[in-house]
Amino acid sequence: MEVKQKAPVRNVPNKVYVTGFPMYTQPQDLERVFAEYGKVKVDKVTKQYATLSFSNSEEAKAATKQSKKIAVYGELVCVKPFYTKPLNAATPKKEHQKTKKGRTILSPHEILLSGEFDEQLENVLMAIRLTQEEVKQIGDLYSDLEEVLQVIWPGCTAIPFGSITTGLGVKCSDADCFINIPNKQQHSNNNYIMKARKALYGHKLLFSDIVPIPHANTPIIKLYHLPSRTHCDLTFKTPLGTRNSRLIDFLLHADPRLLPLALLVRYWAQAHGFTGTRRVTNYALTMMIIFYLQQAPISILPSIRWLQRDPADNCDIDDWNAGFMSDYARLPNSTNTSSVAELLGGFFQYYATFDFNQLVVCPYLGYPVKKALFADNSTLPHEFERYRTNLEKNLSLPLKFTTPICVQDPFEHSHNVACGISAKMADDLCTLFNFAASAYEREKLNGCRGFLRIILLQKPKTFGIKYATEYKTNISPKEITAIKNPDWKSVVRDVTEIIFVQILGIALNKGEEKTIDSQKEKVTFTTKATKPVWRRKYSSKMCYMRHSEFLERQKSLTNEVIKVNKHTFELDFQVELTFTNEPRRVKICMRYLNGDKDLFREFGRFFNNIINPWFKTLLRPHTRPMTSNHNSPNCVNDDLPNCENDVSPDGDNDNSPDCDNDDSSDCDEDDPDETHHAA
């Protein structure tokens, strides 16, 4: 059998092979460092190695001689001569170790949810909470971290914080740890993250999956502790997190009902997929629970401001007061005697009606604060004096209060702990709040026996549906061009008012008039629907008599719909007219403001179906006659909208999309600020 000879490796004299630099190093970083030895070019750079080319072999040798003496971001790199690989050499595949699995938590389907509410509560808590043995193993994690890192920083301590330290830890909880380094060993430019990573790499029997994230707002190291099967986030930046955990621990242990309540709410959020990366953080959810417990008539917990009344309790960290009174005997007495089931139902009812668009959840003051106040710091309550001072001295950034949900940190007032929640997620969360509040209303008369089963195992029918918040239609340019009156815009306004006010019985309140440029202007009306006047197909046949006039027939339809539908609601929306002068164009937009989104969806589809035929009919007295060949003997008047075919039983045509088609050949191109949005 013939044995193939390996091709010899070949040295490339003007190239070097570099390893040992931080994984976030960029090509320009290497070029800057190695420029000292000659004209250099980075051929390739990965997280593990880089290859560099110099203009000649002498420069490459000079760089090689400085191996282990050249520093990149504080790490000494290894520089070796570069050798080409044999042409027929097969590189063995690197076997990647599978990510270790931590503890898992039971799904609601695996938990017995029958019997009395208190029995179900006990079953849930037993299924999700950490056992004493698991807590002890996690304690070993902090001891192991101290032992490893004290080699680099003698006297450093590992301070746990987060869910596990507050009593909110569940089987899938990650550990959080702040490494407190003695003052004499602290340096402003010290690369703690990379030094700690290097130390942890040397203990493969204790730690794995070590991932440094040095450029985050709060730099951390993610790791997995093998003995306790626990994922951990390690930080060196600030002890503020430890103070937050102490506050939560103190407040939730002030009453024996509060810890089970918080665990249920957090498990409910996890069961519906709301917790995790780029979702609702457990910390934000806990702050919402504490804030709810501060509200009257619940009034179980005081505001954080009340806990900070005594200057002796102050503890300044990063220019914020993170101190608080922690004596249970000095807490104000609470007369609340609600059960855990009642507190849980009250939590959902409170946030089902909370106006997240206008208000900030503020545990510091213990009551909601209007978002608009944060737009002008001078209008803020005097309790925010430190916040104003820190902004004036550029010690912090302003609070991000314009997000869909704003939950202010009780200590660091410039931090919105819910800023990562998207508009879609906020809408889904509010849908679940309403669903759970309704379930509580039904089940409280039955001792809440089915309450947990409903909120943990069921979802509302509309959950996760993307709703259009705008329905837009371009009125036929042919009809608009044919208007005889030079003041054609007033004619369009009048017809719009006839449709909404006279036909549909919906009053229009004139709002803003805005001139965009010499060619465009907008007129906005605000209005409110209280009856489903778009459900017209269910009305009696008398309203479809062909001999009646269009306007009278449609008014009769509306009156019958109002008479038949006893239930009222409030659906707030805007009607916006956009006029273009040359050529004449009109776009009419219906924009959602507040109310049932299913009703707005029905109305929007109905609106898109009828607006052009109704406009065509109502504009006829105002337009020049146009020649046409409508000679069908079976049609009384082809231009009249056929009421029986206007809408389907639910107020729309089954083939109608949620949004109009603005891409047709006779329509204007949308303005950049007039696109559809999903709530």
Automatic annotation (TrEMBL):
Keyword Transferase part of the UniProt annotation: yes
An annotated GO BP: RNA 3'-end processing
Protein name: Speckle targeted PIP5K1A-regulated poly(A) polymerase
Stretches assigned to the RRM domain: 14-94
Class of enzymatic activity (EC top level): transferase
Record EC number: 2.7.7.52
Positions with biased composition (Acidic residues): 647-673
Compositional bias (Polar residues): 626-635
Species: Papilio machaon
GO molecular function: metal ion binding; poly(A) RNA polymerase activity; RNA binding; RNA uridylyltransferase activity
Keyword Magnesium: yes
Region listing for Disordered, in residue ranges: 626-679
Required co-factors: Mn(2+); Mg(2+)
Domain of life of the native organism: Eukaryota
